[in-house]
Design a protein that fits this description.
Keywords: DNA-binding, Transcription, Transcription regulation. By secondary structure, the protein is mainly alpha-helical. The protein folds into two domains: 138 residues, no CATH class; 115 residues, Arc Repressor Mutant, subunit A (Orthogonal Bundle). It has 14 helices and three strands. It has a three-stranded parallel β-sheet with strand order 2-1-3, covered by helices on one side. About 5% of the residues have low confidence.
């Protein structure tokens, strides 16, 4: 069997080949090509496309392609079902499903960064998923600290200290500083759809087309502006910031650009909106 998917694999597109080789066809071949060429190449090679929209082997609801293969081929191995939770959590950024998913996501991203050849990356992926399968099969219940009383003691002391520190009230300035730092980061970050598409290993036109479905029916630029204006409204409630400073902190190129964007989204000028906020606070205090 031949299988084909998008280039630059990270999680599902490495996990699925491992699963197919192990349970479906040990001699399966895999091809990685640019997104726009997948269906054409699939026809030429008589290959099965996977992990792309509008094909059989893809995501369904909150399930990823790995889940579909498990279901399609009725794989009952309990270790594979443990892996399925981890792969799904990592592939869909829902780490609450399986705590191991964050580690898999980090390792997968690091591998993709270090190895530019997709087929070399796939060979390393087989090693990772073989190891993860062995852990799920034989070591799933074993804890790292269970054979080290000294490390376990340190671990317990550490968590006790953390718990005691959590009881202390965090100063207001800490939260404000975090906001300011994040604003500075946002301001320095260039929202370049092409770069983001490369990072996500998605075709830019596909990302642009699908974006509004999941982000409040807004296109990429509109959504970014909306989030910046929401941050600006938060900052307006802190009197120490002038409107010029708020425009700067929320990443607008100048005051007029900020004013135009703010009025477009809220229907009011920033100064009028802030005055209403002040009046609302005064009215609340007087009641």
């Amino acid at each position: 069997m031949k299988w084909i998917t998008r280039e630059r694999p990270k999680i599902d597109r490495l996990a699925c080949p491992w699963l197919i080789r192990k349970y479906v066809d040990s001699n399966a071949q895999f091809f990685y090509v640019p997104f726009d060429e997948i269906l054409k190449k699939a026809a030429e090679l008589n290959a099965i496309p996977f992990d792309i929209p509008d094909v059989e082997f893809t995501h369904y609801g909150d399930q990823c392609t790995f889940d579909y293969i498990v279901k399609k081929y009725q794989i009952t191995d309990p270790a594979v079902h443990i892996l399925a939770d981890i792969v799904r959590a990592a592939d869909t950024d829902r780490y609450s499903i399986a705590k191991e998913a964050a580690g898999l996501g980090a390792i997968s991203a690091g591998l993709a960064y270090n190895i530019r050849d997709d087929y070399q990356l796939l060979e390393q992926g087989y090693i990772i998923y073989d190891a993860l399968y062995s852990w799920a099969k034989h070591l799933y219940q074993q804890k790292h600290l269970q054979n080290s009383p000294f490390e376990k003691l340190l671990h317990e002391v550490y968590h006790k200290i953390l718990k005691e520190n959590d009881k202390k009230k965090t100063p207001v300035w800490v939260k404000e500083l975090k906001n300011i730092i994040q604003d500075q980061i946002d301001m320095q970050f260039t929202f370049d759809l092409k770069k983001i598409s490369d990072e996500l290993t998605l075709n830019p036109s596909y990302l642009s087309r699908e974006f509004s479905k999941y982000f409040d029916d807004l296109n990429f630029g509109e959504y970014v502006r909306k989030k910046r204006i929401e941050k600006a409204i938060e900052l307006m409630q802190q009197p120490e910031y002038s409107l010029t400073e708020i425009a700067y902190l929320t990443g607008f190129s100048d005051q007029s650009h900020f004013t135009r964007s703010f009025k477009h989204i809220t229907g009011e000028n920033p100064s009028a909106f802030r005055n209403k906020l002040k009046k609302s606070k005064v009215d609340t205090k007087s009641k």
